[in-house]
Each structure stands twice: as structure tokens, then as C-alpha cells.
Design goal:
Strand order of the largest sheet: 2-3-4-1-5
CATH topology of the largest domain: Rossmann fold
Bound molecules: adenosine-5'-triphosphate, magnesium ion, zinc ion
Distance between the termini: 54 Å
Largest sheet: 5 strands, parallel
Shape: elongated
Strand content: 5-15%
CATH architecture of the largest domain: 3-Layer(aba) Sandwich
Number of helices: 16
Helix content: 40-55%
Structural class: alpha/beta
CATH superfamily of the largest domain: P-loop containing nucleotide triphosphate hydrolases
Number of strands: 5
Oligomer: single chain
Number of domains: 3
Length: 350
């Protein structure tokens, strides 16, 4: 899988998350290492990756002045091969109970074999049972000095306040489409995947800020022969092509009922998932509206067509409301196209 091959091995290779990188490097250079960190944020944005780099840097024999691990000393090598005894990764989704945390506690009390730091990364920490959480809390109250915990979760609201008060929290951000695009382009070049930029943009926009999802999508296209086009990408990934949104919008703006209804029928027949289309279309209309309110919100990628519409804000709001309801009704409608058709008719009634 490409996403494993291209997992960053140094702070410098991490895309975005500058606030996290800066603080972790600061801790390394001043030697003020916390005992417990909480990494929260959407999936596929670098939580596990940064936990591993930090663990590696803590025990690296030849860390550079920027705080980056050298990836060639014995400690780094064993960590990169996944057999370090100083880095213990626990998936709380499958080890949820009190016994696991008791084992962890015993292990935490024993010094690291190398004499350095022992780093426990607990992934999906919100999945722990209440008892296990309380046991973890006990350890966090009096952590052995050579131990560092990195708790990771996509659902920070499920973490108890008593735990939150004992950890240093970092909120990871969704990566922007252009950050994802740049990384995908590097990977595509390195792997000699021949794909047009528009195709990479389509992947970047569709992956909702998660770089791993984007890299997984790129992996799926690897076996294509010849130059991979944006249409190859949308059909392989089941995406709705960007141009559909502006095409449909055009009919609504022009009050062209017949073309709008034909369009719905046509994309339905071509295999587009109408619920998915409607979701993306609502997002598209939202961007048109945001652009009207404040043109500075336009980000450079995949949004070129939002700026051209001559339509007033109240009609945009009406479109959104109608299509939000239509989307909810698609699941239960006896005819899938019907909710969208009714939304069109209601919007464009004389
Ligand atoms: N910020 C990033 N910079 C560079 N690569 C990244 C970044 N975030 C994710 N990736 C890519 O995605 C892969 C998965 O990232 P990682 O495991 O760190 O995500 P995560 O935040 O821990 O996700 P999850 O919540 O699903 O565990 C990495 O191997 C890497 O290829
Ligand atoms: Mg992870
Ligand atoms: Zn090293």
C-alpha cells in the first residue's frame, strides 16, 4: 500500500500540522518532555505517524539539531522495523478492558530496555471501558519518569475531563486539498504513475482532508494503462465529476426545468448515486453562497466554477433547503429520482 510506503519518517516530511510539529520539536530541544499527550483529529491526518516520529526522536542516539531522528542509529532502525521494545502501540478498540491497562501499568513500571524513554501509544483511546479509563487515569496521575503516553483519538468529546486535564492536547487538522494534491503529485512522480493533474485534484478534493484516504485512492488507480484521466478517477472511485455540479446549477439558475429533470434522469441512468450527488451538490451550492458573501474564501483548487453565477443569495438558500430535504428523502423514496425532481419543480414553479 502506498500509504505505508510513504509514511513520513521525520518531522520534516510531515505535511501540515505545523503547530504540533513545532511544539514536539520544542519539547525535544529543551528536554521538557511531557508524560502524556493527546492527539485528536480526523482519521488519516498524521496522528499515529507523529506519535512514532516523536517516540523515535526521544530515543534516537543521533537526533539532529532540528529534533529529527536520524533513522539510522540502532534505536531508530529497530523502531522503523516495528520491533522496538521502547515503543508499545496498543489499539484500544480491540484491547478495551481493565486487564490490558493493568498489563500496561506493569510494563510502564519496568524501565526501557535501552535505558531511554518508553513510549506507549494508545490508539482509539476513547474505546476503553470506564474501568480501564480509570486505571489509565491512575497511571497518568503518577507516571514513572521514563514513560511517555501518546493517546490518540478521532473522538475527543468522549474523553473524560479528568483525563483531559492531565494531558497536553494537540488538535490535528484536516489537510487542505492543495496540501493533499502536492503530496499526491510527489507520490505519483516517485511511483511513475502517469496521471493528469485534474485527476489528482479530484482525489484531493474527495478525500475530505485525510491524506491516507487520498493515498489509498491513488493506489487503486496504479494498474491503469496509459495516462490516467479525471474521468478514469471519477469512475474508478465512484465520484461525481465536478462538472456535474456546475451543469446542474446552470439549469437551476436558468430556470430550465426540462433540462434539470433530464439531467437527473440521465445521471441516475449512468450509475451515479443520487444521494451522493445531492450531498456534493449541496456542498457546491454552499461554496457558491460563501463566495458571494466573501470572495476571499475561495481556495484555489477544484472551485473555479463557483464564482461565475448570477444568482441571488436568497435563491441559493432556497436551493440548499430544498435539496437538504430531498437528500433525506432519497433513502425512503419508492422512486429514487423523485425527491430531486420534486425539489426542482418546487424551486422552479412559476
Ligand atoms: N500529515 C501527514 N503528512 C504526511 N503523510 C500523512 C499525514 N497524515 C497522514 N499521512 C499519510 O497517511 C498515512 C496514515 O496516517 P496516520 O496513520 O498517521 O493517520 P492517523 O491520523 O493516525 O489516522 P487514524 O485516526 O485512522 O489512526 C500515513 O502513512 C501517511 O502516508
Ligand atoms: Mg492512527
Ligand atoms: Zn536514530
Amino acid at each position: 500500500m502506498l500509504y505505508r510506503k510513504y509514511r513520513p519518517q521525520t518531522f520534516a516530511q510531515v505535511v501540515g500540522q505545523e503547530h504540533v510539529v513545532k511544539t514536539l520539536k520544542g519539547a525535544l530541544s529543551t528536554g521538557r518532555i511531557g508524560h502524556a499527550y493527546l492527539f485528536t483529529g480526523p482519521r488519516g491526518t498524521g496522528k499515529t505517524t507523529l506519535a512514532r516520529i516523536f517516540a523515535k526522536a526521544l530515543n534516537c542516539a543521533k537526533r539532529d539539531k532540528d529534533g529529527d531522528p536520524d533513522n539510522s542509529c540502532p534505536s531508530c532502525l529497530t523502531t522503523n522495523e516495528g520491533r522496538s521494545l521502547d515503543l508499545i502501540e496498543i489499539d484500544a478498540a480491540s484491547n478495551r478492558g481493565i486487564d490490558e491497562i493493568r498489563n500496561l501499568k506493569e510494563s510502564a513500571l519496568v524501565a526501557a530496555p535501552s535505558g531511554g524513554y518508553k513510549v506507549f501509544v494508545i490508539d482509539e483511546v476513547h474505546m476503553l471501558t470506564k474501568d480501564a479509563f480509570n486505571a489509565l487515569l491512575k497511571i497518568l496521575e503518577e507516571p514513572p519518569s521514563h514513560v511517555v503516553f501518546v493517546l490518540a483519538t478521532t473522538e475527543p468529546h468522549k474523553i473524560l475531563p479528568t483525563v483531559l486535564s492531565r494531558v497536553q492536547r494537540f488538535d490535528f487538522r484536516r489537510l487542505t486539498p492543495s496540501q493533499i494534491f502536492t503530496k499526491l503529485k510527489e507520490v505519483a512522480m516517485a511511483e511513475k504513475i502517469n496521471i493528469e493533474d485534474e485527476g489528482l485534484k479530484a482525489i484531493a478534493v474527495s478525500s475530505d482532508g485525510a491524506l491516507r484516504d487520498a493515498e489509498v485512492s491513488l493506489s487503486k488507480l496504479r494498474s491503469y494503462q496509459g495516462k490516467i484521466t479525471v474521468d478514469d478517477v471519477t469512475s474508478a472511485l465512484g465520484l461525481v465529476p465536478f462538472r456535474y455540479h456546475s451543469e446542474f446549477m446552470g439549469y437551476l439558475v436558468a430556470d430550465d426545468k426540462v433540462s434539470a429533470l433530464n439531467f437527473i434522469q440521465r445521471i441516475h441512468e449512468s450509475g451515479v448515486d443520487l444521494e451522493h450527488f445531492t450531498k456534493d451538490f449541496i456542498e457546491y451550492v454552499r461554496r457558491v453562497l460563501m463566495f458571494k458573501i466573501n470572495p476571499a474564501v475561495l481556495t484555489a483548487i477544484g472551485e473555479e466554477s463557483v464564482q461565475n453565477w448570477q444568482i441571488d443569495g436568497s435563491k441559493l438558500v432556497k436551493i440548499m433547503n430544498l435539496f437538504i430535504s430531498a437528500r433525506n428523502e432519497i433513502k425512503t423514496s419508492p422512486v429514487v429520482q423523485l425527491p430531486l425532481e420534486l425539489a426542482v419543480l418546487e424551486l422552479l414553479q412559476p
